[in-house]
Design goal:
Elements lengths: L2 H7 L5 E4 L2 E8 L2 E7 L5 E4 H4 L2 H6 L3 E3 L10 E5 L6 E9 L2 E5 L16 E4 L1 E4 L3
Antiparallel strand pairs: 1-2, 1-5, 2-3, 3-4, 6-7, 6-10, 7-8, 8-9
């Protein structure tokens, strides 16, 4: 997605990845900004203050899913180092970590209580077939 498509379709609060960096859309009335999230409630740095116009206009903006809307058992790829990725089934996202069902199981196939049947990961992305 390019910057014009982003401007036309992006909703307030949506997050996008641009060359490995995470940016959040902030719409305030008629104002449209792309800001780097510091944490869930505090923002800093607008994209235009740290990137050139060439970068902004040529970048490919990829939407990051809102993990609170992802159904359990959705196929995902997970990693702790961002290099080696594993196929798993999504359980939940909490406190900045992603949880999947242990060893590729699903909520239907786990044999132990949910609390001990989950793995915690640093990175997660949707699996595309």
């Amino acid at each position: 997605m390019n910057i014009w498509e982003l401007y036309q379709t992006a909703q307030n609060g949506e997050e996008y990845e641009v060359n490995g960096e995470r940016w959040r859309i902030v719409r305030e009335g008629e104002t449209f900004n792309i800001k780097k999230p510091k944490d869930a409630y505090d923002y800093y740095t607008t994209i235009q203050s740290v990137k050139s116009l060439g970068y902004i206009f040529s970048a490919d903006y990829k939407k990051i899913p809102r993990w609170d809307n992802i159904p359990t058992d959705t196929k995902v790829l997970v990693s702790n180092d961002g290099k080696t990725w594993y196929k798993r089934y999504f359980s939940r996202c909490e406190d900045g970590y992603y949880y999947t069902w242990d060893s590729g199981k699903t909520s239907f196939t786990i044999t132990q209580p949910k609390e001990v049947s989950q793995e915690r990961w640093m990175c997660c992305k949707l699996y595309e077939e």
